[in-house]
Design brief:
Layout: E1 2-10, H1 14-26, E2 32-35, H2 76-97, E3 108-110, E4 113-118, H3 120-133, E5 143-145, H4 148-154, H5 156-159, E6 168-173, E7 177-179, H6 181-194, E8 198-200, E9 203-210, E10 216-222, E11 228-238, H7 243-251, E12 260-271, H8 274-277, E13 283-285, E14 299-305, E15 308-318, H9 331-334, H10 338-350, H11 352-362, H12 366-376, E16 386-389, E17 393-400, E18 404-408, E19 411-415, E20 421-426, H13 434-445, H14 450-460, H15 472-485
Parallel strand pairs: 1-2, 1-11, 2-8, 4-13, 11-20
Antiparallel strand pairs: 3-7, 4-6, 5-6, 9-10, 10-11, 12-15, 12-16, 12-17, 13-14, 14-15, 17-18, 19-20
Pfam family, one: Mqo
Pathway: Carbohydrate metabolism; tricarboxylic acid cycle; oxaloacetate from (S)-malate (quinone route): step 1/1
Organism: Microbacterium trichothecenolyticum
């Protein structure tokens, strides 16, 4: 039998959870269904141990504000990322107030965001970055120091047995956060189930076919038993992480032509030693290695997962041809089409530094990884740290009229011309900016509904359609309001 729904969400991660939550709130009578290939939701990139849990607000991540060859710096991208994260905070605060989400500490905790650099060149860069950002309302409260005594107060593990005479500097924003996106995702889906949304796990989508009436006939198989089934949907969102490329290719929409993805895995060093954990309460980022992708910026993080606090360091890049941890070893090959072969080959030719970096990472032993940790924490001992596999990140490769093909970091929404299907490709800072990404998708795919929906969106997200950073009073008000509602006041 074929079931008919208004909206079908493919993938049980934070993106589908956010879109489903917004649409069900904006129009409660929408019939929504979710298909997830695995046995539960939030098992891939949204799982707490598969990502860094950083509430990406550009408070500490240097790759959002690089220094040009001429020494110039532009805070625009950092501000934009922060604006997007504020929308996430506002929606979560509203959902807590309405009882959709549980106690805030089950998914978000106050964790200062820091940047720590060494060497005269990086110290000069960080000082200049600080001078620019401290003038921006969304970065109010950012602190800077080159004083070892001050940095020791902020994060003692960074300074113990640090070599004297070495130039170093740090910035700190007390208002940073650690987010358990796995818990957040599960809570959102639990609420959707209560509101009548069918969240079907162990359902593997095999085929998407456009019907004459403009709807989509989606064929799937039950993972257990292999029983086939179909569902018809007026609108389909593919939020399946690295799997999204494969499903969009199967849909046959021309908009996916020229796209491919390059999978990059990762590992963390993790410790739950209470004596070590008690000495560090921050997410501390630094500069990426030469040739390393932005997602591989080293950082030493406080994590709070299921009420337990631990520390993670990494990520260390790994390689697997799989697009997901639970993917296929043939993923990287089966994505190849005549229209994306040349762009992917061009990316390979133009990024020898990335290939060299991946090879060097793959050759690192546990001891070598602990040596990298000692750049942050000079007193680190190998026996205190275990290796933990992180998630797979499928970085976007696509056609470029000037270069032939480019490797793109970040996320991108692919939408069919008739707006009946859309999918998300890419990785970080996706989860942190899921609300902003899904708001953009709703505006693109449901333009005729926006006049009716916008008043409610402004209730849920007060800064919707506006820039907080250009309105200091509004920025201060919303930052304070969400901090109080989410109990993340420093």
């Amino acid at each position: 039998m074929t079931e008919n729904v208004d909206v079908l969400l493919i993938g049980g991660g934070i993106m589908s959870a956010t879109l489903g939550t917004l649409l069900k709130d904006l129009q409660p009578d929408l019939k929504i269904a979710v298909l997830e290939r695995l046995s539960d939701v939030a098992q891939e990139s949204s799982n707490a141990w598969n990502n860094a849990g950083t509430g990406h607000a550009a408070l500490c991540e240097l790759n959002y504000m690089p220094e040009g060859k001429d020494g110039s710096m532009d805070p625009a991208k950092a501000i934009a990322i922060n604006e997007q994260f504020q929308q996430s905070r506002q929606l979560w605060a509203s959902l807590v107030a309405e009882g959709v989400l549980d106690e805030p500490s089950t998914f978000i905790n106050a964790t200062p965001h820091m940047t720590f650099v060494r060497g005269e060149k990086d110290v000069a860069y960080l000082r200049k970055r600080y001078e620019m950002l401290k003038q921006q309302p969304l970065f109010a409260g950012i602190e800077y120091s080159e004083d070892s005594r001050v940095i020791n107060q902020w994060a003692p593990l960074l300074m113990q047995k640090r070599r004297k005479g070495e130039p170093f500097a740090a910035t700190r924003v007390p208002a940073g956060t650690d987010v358990d996106f796995g818990s957040l995702t599960r809570q959102l889906f639990a609420d959707l189930r209560e509101k009548g949304v069918d969240v079907a796990t162990n359902h593997d989508v095999k085929k998407l076919k456009k019907q004459k009436d403009g709807s989509w006939r989606v064929t799937y198989r039950h993972v257990i038993g292999g029983t086939p089934g179909t569902i018809n949907a007026k609108f389909v969102f593919v939020g399946a992480g690295g799997w999204a490329l494969k499903l969009l290719q199967r849909s046959g929409i021309p908009e996916i032509k020229g796209y491919g993805v390059f999978p990059i895995g990762g590992q963390w060093l993790k410790t739950s030693n209470p004596d070590i954990v008690a000495q560090h309460r921050a997410k501390v980022y630094s500069q990426a290695s030469v040739g390393a992708p932005p997602m591989s910026v080293p950082h030493l993080d406080t994590r709070v997962v299921d009420g337990e606090t631990s520390l993670l360091f990494g990520p260390f890049a790994t390689f697997s041809p799989k697009f997901l941890k639970n993917g296929s070893m043939l993923d990287i090959v089966t994505q190849v089409r005549p229209h994306n072969l040349l762009p992917m080959l061009k990316v390979a030719v133009d990024n020898p530094g990335l290939i060299k970096y991946l090879v060097s990472e793959l050759l690192k032993t546990h001891a070598k990884k602990v040596d990298s940790l000692r750049d942050f924490m000079p007193t680190a001992k190998a026996e205190d740290w275990e290796l933990l596999d992180a998630g797979q990140r499928a970085q976007v490769m696509k056609k470029d009229k000037d270069k032939g093909g480019v490797l793109q970091f970040g996320t991108e929404v692919i939408t069919a011309e008739d707006r009946s299907i859309a999918g998300l490709l890419g990785a970080s800072p996706g989860a942190s900016t899921a609300v902003s990404i899904m708001l953009g998708l709703i505006k693109t795919c449901f333009p005729e509904r926006m006049p009716e929906w916008e008043p409610r969106l402004r209730e849920l997200i007060p800064s919707y359609g506006e820039s907080l950073n250009t309105h200091p009073d509004a920025a201060r008000k919303e930052l304070d309001a969400t901090a109080q509602a989410l109990k993340i006041t420093p």
